[in-house]
From TrEMBL:
The lineage of its organism: Eukaryota, Viridiplantae, Streptophyta, Embryophyta, Tracheophyta. GO terms for molecular function: RNA binding. It comes from the Eukaryota. This is Pentatricopeptide repeat-containing protein. It comes from Brassica oleracea (Wild cabbage). NCBIfam families: PPR (TIGR00756). One of its GO terms (biological process) is RNA modification. PPR repeats lie at residues 34-68. The keyword Repeat applies. It holds the Pfam family PPR. Keywords: Repeat.
Length: 140
């Protein structure tokens, strides 16, 4: 078992037990981080309602050696939905398109949720209609 896998598992375990500060310390001390490690912290912050920390984590992920994936996008879009932050959500939507995750059913569901929670129903319907036209994959 690799060091990266063990440390990421430790971060996940600490976060799930509510020890998010300790999880972040372990994350910060990791000699290397892959997308899974970043997503572990990002989703932990999002699930715990620590939205500003989730936003910060996503921003740092974007400029790291790792790259956001579908899980990253669903986590940050969940944060945007909780905050009803359509401005940030729209920026993330642009990243989704540029990163070619706009064909992901899960990411599109998160986009629809974000737009709906933000009161931008037309934008949510636009995403839904693209999916109905077959532009979304049936699953990842």
């Amino acid at each position: 078992m690799s060091v990266l896998f063990r440390l990421t598992s430790k971060v996940a375990s600490l976060a799930k037990s509510g020890r998010i500060a300790t999880a972040r310390q372990v994350f910060d001390e990791m000699p290397e981080r892959d997308t899974v490690a970043w997503n572990t912290m990002l989703t932990s912050y999002s699930r715990l309602g620590l939205h500003q920390e989730a936003i910060s984590m996503f921003a740092h992920l974007r400029f790291s050696d790792a790259k956001p994936d579908g899980y990253s996008f669903t986590a940050i879009l969940s944060t945007c939905a909780s905050l009803r932050d359509v401005r940030l959500g729209t920026q993330v939507h642009s990243l989704v398109i540029r990163s070619s995750y706009d064909a992901s059913l899960e990411v599109n569901n998160s986009l629809i949720d974000m737009y709906g929670n933000s009161g931008e129903f037309e934008s949510g319907v636009d995403v839904l209609m693209k999916c109905r036209k077959g532009l979304c994959m049936r699953g990842i």
